[in-house]
Amino acid sequence: MPRRALMVLIAAALLIIAPVAMASARGHHRAHARHRHTRRSKGHALKNSTLKMMWGPLTMPNGSSAFPVYQRLGVQVLQLQLSWTATAPTRPGDASNPADPAYHWPAAMDQAVSEAGRYGISLALMVKETPGWANGGQDPSWAPNEPADYAAFLQAASRRYPTIHYWMIWGEVTRPGNFNPMPANSPVGPQRYAVLLDEAYGALKAVNPANLVIGGMTYTLGAVTMGDYLRWLRLPDGAPPRMDFYGDNPYSTRYPKLSAPTYSPAVRDINDIDTIEQELTQDYAGHGPTPKLWLSEFSISSDAPSRAFDFYVSQPVQAKWVTAAFSLVNSLPYVAALGWYELLDEPASVHEHLTEGLMSSSGEPKPAFYAYAKAR
User: Are strands 166-169 and 122-128 parallel, antiparallel or unpaired?
Assistant: First the structure.
């Protein structure tokens, strides 16, 4: 999934909202911000393990199936994307029917469903990208003019893939360019997304009540700060949208440790997930249970900077980050799942290649591979 350099985004946010002294990009960054007054994990008894999730390919570099590797790692949920615009390039006549001739379902997804069942791994689908016929010819980042069109596509997808029960509604919506409209520091985007999410929730539950809907889908920082986003994530009647889990990608330059102070008012990284949970609790008060956190993506680059992140650690330290991240979330009753992005590094021949993988680009395990496999 393409990402801008996190350090650049954090720096911009801090210059605008809360100046923070930054340490070297290769070290652990410390924020000279106020200590937060939120709940800590110290008072929580250990709970059952979170779901171990992964983003990654269906095949290994040698062409063999990746599912035996996921099974070896103990992956419980493999996260994949489904593009609405690629699957429905023209308007279907019967949009909730997966057999409508307008649909072009990806063969790779059929393969994934088959192999996932064989290896006892669940799938989670992130459904995004609006076709031009549904948003007035704008680019795929723009929300549909009619949320019902997106909801009908989700119903068709759920009927096409009846064994899939985890559904992510878009991804990193607060990141500029990922979901529109999302003007900076405005309620317009969160309110538009809330309607889309709630419509999707109702549609998926109508097909199968066992479907679980992941909403929110935020990033460490973005056009709208987390606090404002959650306050503005409202339906026209003032209620928050329905969802089963709250999705977030809490990337960080800081080693996973919940006792660290809040990075800044603009940032919510993995060390701020207790603050996210407190904000969710406040915003869902009187509207049912607080959704647990679905931490879809987390990782740290090894060996070298990349086009996504200009900070990195050594391979042994990357393994320590894996262990620390799972240890942290496994101690928290409000975290449902944590995903690593991703299985493989990109080849060194790719300019500014990504190095967040648990394995090299050729499929050789890194120390982080074994750390992930041991995480419970």
Answer: parallel
